[in-house]
Amino acid sequence: MQTFEKTRQPKTYVTDETEQSKINKFIKLLELQFRENNRATLTSAAGEVVELPATLFDVLRQVAEALASGRGVSVIPQDMKLTTQQAAEFLGISRPTLIKLLESGAIPFETVGRHRRITLRDLLTYRDRFRLERRTALRQAARAGQEDGLLDLTADEMPPRS
After folding, report:
1. pTM of the model as a whole
2. How does pLDDT run along the chain (162 residues), one tens digit per residue?
3. d(Cα 161, Cα 94) in Å, to the nearest integer?
4. 49: which strand partners?
5. Contact 65, 71 (CB under 8 A)
6. Residue 78 and residue 89: Cα distance in Å, rounded?
7. Half-sphere exposure of 105 toward its Cβ, with a 13 Å CA cutoff?
8. What is the domain partition of the chain in residue ranges?
9. Fold of 81-147
């Protein structure tokens, strides 16, 4: 009998072609059930039916779609502490650039011995804030360009990317 362990360690899941095929069938069945009943359920081996909350359904569908397409999926708790190298890789920046962000106070961190540790939650908060600031700046620049006559088209008027 398989038991469920509560674990807070990160884990990466990768599938082979056989599993991908099974996961694709699972996705189709899950979505069919959702379309027919406007809800999704799981049934245990003992016959107990449990309705999936909408958030869990969405997570399950996204994970299943990624696995079915051959991409790996990592499950990491938000309170996990990352090294500066891991945090830099997560943000897609160099480690020295991350250190500058830490020292400027842009991202909270704690020191363990001589080493800095950053929680995933703080990285996500920084990333979301940075993206919002970048979008706002781009909109302002585009608006200024339109007002100055430098840009002829608005974003809605742009032709689709090919």
Report:
1. 0.59
2. 455 556 567 788 898 888 999 999 988 888 887 788 777 788 888 999 888 888 888 888 899 999 999 998 888 888 899 999 999 999 999 999 999 999 999 999 999 999 999 999 999 999 999 999 998 888 888 888 877 776 666 666 666 655
3. 30
4. 43
5. no
6. 16
7. 0
8. 11-75, 81-147
9. Multidrug-efflux Transporter Regulator; Chain: A; Domain 2 (1.10.1660)
